[in-house]
Amino acid sequence: MNPELSPIEKVVARYEMYDVLMRYCRGVDRSDPELVASVYWEDGYDDHGAMFQGPGWEFAKFFTGVEGRKKPAGAMHVIGNHYVEFEGPDVAFSEAYYLTLGHSQVDEVTAQVFTFCGRYLDRFERRNGEWRTAHRICLHEWNRTERYEAQPNYPGAFAAQFLQGSGKPDDVVYNRDWLMKKASRPGASPTDPPVFPGRAGRMPNS
User: Quick check: is 206 in a domain?
Assistant: First the structure.
């Protein structure tokens, strides 16, 4: 009979499984096939319905555009409720609620937001001290597509003032040097004067 994990060990294991889910979200949203592949064991399996059924490592290449599939514009995966049931020290079943949002331009005058919601049901296995997905089933709960008049000069003057998200290797999450230097950011010099909101000449907390 397999020994049971202690309560503290279960807390650590749940955190490690949640970290795997977070790697998955970053990987698919940033088109990073290596990161998505790190979610699955080498013999892992992914069932994404009619879109894909097969080895997890092949899914990593398929979903991130390596196989020629166009990455959805503005894709964001968000994880909600996460519940884990242990079947011993090295096997666990994970249920994670997900929300996927994708913004794209339909034509010159129309844009759309695609919302897709469901649950990832994973059989996690711990091998050599590491938890990864051995088998995933992606369940659908509901989805909705909303079309509307496109915003002129998207993303618009206000949003354009922010750094824009991108895929690997261009996204700033893969270029962390700018976080290591005070007041530095991509496209700006560290010697550039800081920008403060409010009245001209007023410093924060002054």
Answer: no
